[in-house]
Amino acid sequence: MELLPLPANWSRIGFPLRTGAVYSEEDLEARLKALGYDLDDSPDYPGGVLFHGNTFEIFPAGAFGPFRIEHSGGRIRRIAAINPIDQEVISETKELLIDPMSERLTFTGRARRRSSLLDYCARAKWIADSTVPRHADTWLSTIEDAAARSERDRAYLSRREWELAAKKITVLPPTTPYRATPEFYKAASPRKALRAFVEEAQRGRARVLFVAAVEADLRVMARMSAIKAECVPDWTHATATGRQQAALLAGFDAGFVVPGKKPLVVITAADVLGSRAHQPQPMNWAWTPGFDSGDLPELGSVVVHLQRGLARLGGLRSMGTGELSAREMVRLVFAGNDAVLVPLAELALIWPYAAELGDTSLDKADGSSWRPRRAAAETEIHVVAKELAKQMSQRRRRPAPKLVPRPAVYEKFVARFPYFTTPDQAKAIRDVLDDLASGHPMDRIVCGDVGFGKTEVALRAAAAAVLAGKQVAIVVPTTVLARQHVETFRKRFAPLGIDVGNLSRVASTAEARKVRERLKSGELRVVVGTLSLASKEVRFAELGLIIIDEEQHFGAAEKAMLSGLNKNGHRLWMSATPIPRTLAAGLTGLRDLSVIATPPVHRVPVATKVAPLSDIAIAAALVREHRRNGQSFVICPRIQDLDPLLARIHALAPELRIITIHGKLPTDEIDERLMGFVEGRADVLLATNIVESGLDIPRANTIVVCWPEKFGLAQLHQLRGRVGRGGIRAFAHFLTEGGSERSEKRLSVLEELSRPGAGFAISARDLDLRGGGDLRSDRQSGHTQVFGPTLYGHLLTLALEGDRDGMSALWIPELNLPIPELLPASYVQSEAVRLEIYARAARCRSDDELEELEDETHRRFGKLPSEASNFFAVAKLRVDCRQRGIMRLDVGPDAIAATMLAGRIGKLRSRSLQREGDRVVYPGRSDEPALRRVEQFLDLLDE
Question: Has this prediction a pTM greater than 0.70?
Answer without folding.
Answer: no
